[in-house]
Please model this.
Amino acid sequence: MERTGSNKSKAIEALKKMKSVESAVSYLSEKGKSDGILTPFKAVYDGFKEILNLETKKSSSKGLPLKKEQEDSEKKNAMNEARSMAWILYDVYKKSHGYLNPL
Model:
């Protein structure tokens, strides 16, 4: 993330899309070059927005609670997502420290 100047969500999307760290870094660096001239100003605005918790009403209101089946499927999706992200973190850690990799 530091080499490409992208935020966490962009890095996660790139890892999911590219399936390897090297290709994700190259994808983010190419994408970073194509960003406009207003990108730094937008980042400052987003930072203030995050600090001051300026959220829209749509994102803050959730609506009705989910049914049991929907809740179970959401939990399963969240577990799978967490498992895949933990594996990516483990794999990147091992590669960066020079340990043997299972793949």
About this structure: The two ends are 23 Å apart (CA to CA). Residues 64-103 form one domain. Helices lie at 8-18, 21-33, 39-52, 57-60, 68-96. Residues 13 and 24 are 9 Å apart (CA to CA).
